[in-house]
Amino acid sequence: MTNSQRPPRVTAGILSYNRKNDLRRTLRNVLSLAEPSLEVLVVDNGSTDGTLTMLENEFLSAEHSRLRVIPLEQNEGIAARNRLFLETHTDFLLTLDDDSWPASGHDVVKMLTVMERDASIASVCATCIHPESGIAETAGIERFASGGSRETGFEVINIAAGGSLLRMEAVRQTAGYDADLFWGREENDLAFQLVQHGWKIVFYPGAVVYHAFSPTERNVYSRLELITRNTIWILWKYFPLLVAIPAVTLFAVRRALPFIVDYRRCLPVSRGIFKGIRGFVRFRAKRTVFSLRQSWQLRHWFYKMLYE
Q: Which residue segment(s) compose the domain that 283 sits in?
């Protein structure tokens, strides 16, 4: 049996929303990979730009028999990725955005090799590079690692939904993405759940995923509000108050400092802080709190959070 005839061990899972042209490019790149053999699954998050018509006319044919499309009636936010988890029947899920794709099949194999070398790894995050500029979004993540190396992968709390390989055995032990977050810090939420079950999260710089970072559906200031709000919610949910309260205070101050150079940040950040604090009861009720010792072990994540 040749490699191309073997049943796929990896599903490429793509979440799409109103980026018809970006998704077209992503699918062309993913479907052109010769090795490894991949299942390809697209969850469309209630797009209204003709995405489903494009998929039906250009991709849903016998030529792409391993491509499946799940259309959702409305935008469910990041929780729509839970549909990918439910519909993935392979051992591993390569999670992608509608504007990201592996640089080559060899890069997918590299991520898979790292994963198979250590059965305690739940996620391998690749180097995410903008294909036009060559700028790496993941540059410097290793500075916040708690262990590991370039060869084995750096141990970090970082799952890039647009370029990570997930072990489905590990993911199924979690509750998946929290729908209440909608967008922002949801990858930290999933990573913390995996860590609580004893799994490792690694960044492997030797593998590359291209992320075009489409400008469509990207409002910098609304996203800034969501990230601010959700960071505070995550702190309430996972950390003892002895850690969470000073962390929220420090984070709020850090978020406010750039007001000096960009006054337009003031309103979205202020809203994010207010909503984050107001969500205390709601997210404290969800709490699955780390101990003080575990919180100290996760200090590198705090450093990265404050650096961003």
A: 220-307
